[in-house]
Amino acid sequence: MNLTHKIKQRILTEGDLPFTELMGMALFDEEFGYYTTRRNPIGKQGDYYTSSHISAHFGELLAEFAVRVWKELGTPDRFYLVEVGGGEGYLACDLLTALRRNHPILFEKVRLVMCEPSPLLQGAQQTRLREFTSQVTWSGLSSLAGNPIIGLVIANEVVDALPVHRLRYRQGQLEESFVTVHHNNLALRWKKPSNPIAFSTFLEKTGMSVPDGYQFEIGLNAISWLTDVAKALTAGTVLIIDYGDLSDHLAVEPNGTLRCFYRHAVNSDFLERLGEQDMTADVNFSALMVYGTELGLKLVKLDRQGDFLIGLGLLEKLEKITDLEQDSLAALKERLALKHFLVPGGMGDRFKVLIQKKV
Ligand SMILES: C[S@@+](CC[C@H](N)C(=O)[O-])C[C@H]1O[C@@H](n2cnc3c(N)ncnc32)[C@H](O)[C@@H]1O
Known about the structure:
The chain is α/β, with parallel strands linked by helices and about 350 residues long. It has a domain at about 55-160 and about 220-265 and about 280-359: Rossmann fold, CATH 3.40.50. Helix content is about 40%, strand content about 25%. The protein has helices at about 5-15, 20-30, 35, 50-55, 55-70, 90-100, 105-110, 120-130, 140-145, 195-205, 220-230, 285-295, 305-310, 315-325, 330-340, 345-350; strands at about 15-20, 80-85, 110-115, 135-140, 150-155, 165-170, 175-180, 185-190, 215-220, 235-245, 260, 265, 280, 285, 300-305, 350-359. The termini are far apart. The chain binds S-adenosylmethionine. S-adenosylmethionine (SAM) binds near residues 42, 141 and 225.
């Protein structure tokens, strides 16, 4: 049995599946999903890099952001940091290490909650965070929603992993991509949409207009996820970092933004290597802002990641490394890593940072 076989079995009993179900199983099937079975998905041995794997300075700069949020909240005695989808735990570890070194008063008051659905990644996080054991717990995001906290919620490259619906207009009619079985193989076909009211509400609210024939994605799961995030906070800030754009910049490619990553190469073989490759779509930041406002999350700012990091001291860090250790190989590597966040077309350019606040 493999995931392709499991999906075929499901289609034979339940009928054709909306594409979002395929994506959900590809990433999170209990037995065969990418995040449930892939060891080290991120980094050199994996399929892609994230900012936290590029440089520890990323987590260190986010520590400065946490200090700002703590101060804005009036320096409470207990300050919760929630990391949703923390992957292998690099960001949380770098952030706590920086707080301990540079902001010991806040460090004592911090409790870290990791919300990670993959047991495999939870294990990696427990190992990486073992020196902070007394300050860290693991929780489901929905349990946290029933027990809200004051603090900062961080989600770095998480929303792009939430399964999306794939759609298109054909002669003015909305159609949705479904997975079917054809000659004993998985195949995609366009059908009437499974949830037309939710889709048209989404398009209307986010102001997304799509040329006829162009494929595009709608992230209803991102909205339910944001609902849980909003419920998890009594007061504080939500920081979402991801690639993506505003609605009117998202429907500009005929094939949409959905793509797979396998061993650092991008492909659009959505029915191949199921559970063995990452699948992701650009985040619709207009949707997070519009629905966020309805959920009580006030928009503070949408920024380029590069500008956000510069605001937290990226250039000063670069200058310091250059001054102190000009000749060492380690310093050279660090400088190159930081430049990923600064060069045009690099991570600082392609990624956006959304800051929302609950007061
Ligand atoms: C691309 S990885 C990013 C990991 C990490 N934030 C980093 O910067 O390296 C996506 C992460 O989101 C998690 N994830 C996916 N769906 C999730 C959900 N519904 N709730 C919480 N985490 C989720 C995955 O298990 C994984 O940890």
